[in-house]
Specification:
mainly alpha; single chain; 19 helices; elongated
Length: 370
């Protein structure tokens, strides 16, 4: 950025309007310049010099402010070239910006979900705390709450080690007591399977969440070893599979949300039933919106008829909705039961940076298949 632009942005005057501010924003090409610019926005918008702050913010959003904020936060968080205090300062600035505007916050969650496979921002406790607070009050803004819950679901799917802060977030989101949470953690990938069931049962995937975001979410939350989980959770999954499949077979075009979910979770079903592959005709029919082919292909998707998959869990981990799901497998209802919330959940505490090595232990390597 030229010295003229630096002087211009440092001496905001009465004549500075939305277009001029947008021009200054577009002129930034270094992270430290963007940090300084973003740090001044909140104070500038509430100053007496700005008569129409909404117009200014709308113009900046049109100039891709949301992308710039999230990119800076992601780069800073994953960088080994800046100090910890600098990271903390930049994260705080970025969170203050996106928290000030509902559209920016929604964009931040969507941006994160679409890049969840390669981004490190899901390991930032402060950002996840923000998502947790939004998810905890869905009545205030249902769409924002949905996207926040999706951020939490993807985060939990990647976690493998937990400190108290991450544990509190996971327990609150999944509605688990301390005892049940500890049992799930101690038994393979049971927590990841519980997480998958929770996001589907919540009913917040299509059509409430866009297809592109849902694709990214389901691709991430299905990456676990389903065979190394509690039988009770496996039974619950099979009952849910039966219900989704029955409902999908009853629908015509356009392909129902149940079909969309089945295409993503079929690998989990295959692992539990030792199926090597599903017929490619199902995917082809879904992609081309071929009603006749889709109905025929769906007949190749099997219902779970194994009696042992619908028995109470013998390991002392009873499911809280498997029986109701099994009974509903042949019903026309499309309402999925919500997960039961434990009575001894705790609120999350503490906003501290997690050291890079600790993050690697907790979340694993990004190149490793989870």
């Amino acid at each position: 950025m030229t010295k003229a632009v630096q002087k211009f942005t440092q001496n905001l005057s009465l004549e500075l309007d939305a277009q001029a501010l947008s021009w200054a924003f577009r002129s930034l090409d270094e992270d430290h310049e963007l940090e300084e610019f973003l740090a001044g926005i909140p104070g500038f918008l509430i100053s007496d010099e700005v008569k129409t702050p909404d117009d200014v913010l709308t113009t900046l959003k049109g100039a891709h402010l949301g992308n710039a904020v999230m990119s800076l936060m992601d780069r800073s968080w994953s960088s080994d070239l800046i100090t910890s205090p600098m990271k903390q300062r930049r994260i705080a600035i970025c969170l203050k910006i996106i928290s000030a505007d509902r559209q920016l916050l929604l964009h931040a969650f969507e941006w994160t979900l679409l890049r969840s496979a390669e981004s490190d921002i899901l390991t930032c406790i402060d950002f996840i705390q923000l998502a947790s607070s939004c998810a905890g009050d869905p009545d205030r803004d249902p769409k924002l709450g949905c996207y926040a819950k999706c951020v939490l679901a993807v985060t939990i799917s990647r976690l493998r080690e937990y400190d108290d802060r991450w544990s509190c977030i996971a327990k609150r989101h999944l509605g688990l007591s301390d005892a049940r949470f500890d049992k799930y953690r101690a038994h393979g990938d049971s927590l990841q399977l519980r997480n998958l069931l929770h996001i589907i049962q919540s009913g917040i995937l299509p059509p409430l969440v866009s297809s592109s975001v849902s694709n990214s979410i389901l691709a991430q939350v299905c990456k676990f070893d389903a065979t190394n989980t509690f039988p009770g959770l496996q039974h619950e999954f099979c009952a849910l599979w039966n219900r989704l499949l029955t409902q999908a077979r009853q629908q015509g075009l356009p392909p129902p949300p149940e079909m969309f979910i089945l295409l993503h979770i079929r690998a989990v079903y295959a692992a539990l039933h030792k199926i090597t592959a599903f017929p490619p005709t199902v995917i082809s029919a879904f992609s081309h919106h071929d009603d006749v082919a889709l109905r025929g292909a769906l007949s190749l998707y099997p219902l779970c008829t194994d009696p042992s998959h619908h028995l109470p869990d013998r390991l002392g981990m009873p499911t809280h909705s498997s029986s109701s799901l099994a009974n509903a497998a042949t019903s026309g209802s499309r309402t999925l039961p919500a997960a039961r919330r434990g009575s001894d959940d705790r609120t999350a505490v503490g906003h501290q940076l997690t050291p890079p090595k600790a993050r690697q232990r907790m979340f694993g390597s990004k190149r490793k298949t989870l």
